[in-house]
């Protein structure tokens, strides 16, 4: 059973949102949370940290620059459908721009979050796991 199905079962959700019908920014909001959860688990598994240290370390993975770099690691492996979902998110206009990120990184990060949210809500746990492995791959490991 996919993790999203487990969450819906636990929360007794009556209706299941179709990820294809959600706005890119709604998908990005879910994707941001999924990325943050993966980052915190990954960092906790590395070694015990204080809450503040965990927050600072996780911020490097879930900031716009970190997510844009992660996208570049996985971009060549995306299917046409995944690339289309990414573009929907990248091209969405939220009306805000963080002060510590370039516009290009911000839009790329939003596209990645949209893709991650879409995969999660679609129940594509195996594909999500495959891409998240690339998310945390060191830059030097690229070929």
Short characterization:
The protein has seven helices and no strands. With 143 residues, the chain is mainly α.
Strand content: under 5%
Q: Mind telling me the C-alpha Rg?
A: 15 Å
What is the third-level CATH name, the topology? Ribonuclease iii, N-terminal Endonuclease Domain, Chain A
Count helical runs. Answer: 7
Q: How many structural domains in the coordinates? A: 1
SS elements, strand count:
0
The H-level CATH homologous superfamily, spelled out, is: Ribonuclease III domain
**Name of the level-1 CATH class:** Mainly Alpha
Distance between the termini: 34 Å
- Average predicted local confidence, pLDDT: 89
Q: Which CATH architecture?
A: Orthogonal Bundle
Order of helices and strands: HHHHHHH
Query: What about the largest sheet?
Result: none
In helices, the fraction of residues equals 55-70%
Uncertain regions: pLDDT < 50 for 5+ in a row? none
Secondary-structure-based class equals mainly alpha
Shape: globular
